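Reference record
================
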Amino acid sequence: FVKERTDILFANETEILSLYETESFGDALAAAQREVRVAVLTRSEKGSIVAVDGQVHEVAAVPTQVVDTTGAGDAYAAGFLAAHTRGLPPGECGRWGSVAAAEVIAHFGARPQADLKALIGQG
């Protein structure tokens, strides 16, 4: 299914390890790269990996105080896609995702409370 029907694969570390039935993040990343053009893998405080056409971009996590992780993955994907649809480079797309996720996990509830445009430097 992934190889035939997926344009952009979003997964957190636990999900990607389970999908490819491995305990090695590197092996899971390599498997994803063989199946999709764009793989976006989040790793909590370790940041994220954006792999596009064989190139791997490491994205740092945005430091924040974790209050509630509800919506973190969705916020990351939304930030990433907002940048991606603007044609920004993969690493910058990951940064937008990281900013959005960091804002959402810093309070209770899954909706951003701060101005995300200002946080990413676009406001």
Observations:
- The longest strand covers residues 8-12.
- The mean pLDDT is 93.
- Residues 90-105 form the longest helix (16 residues).
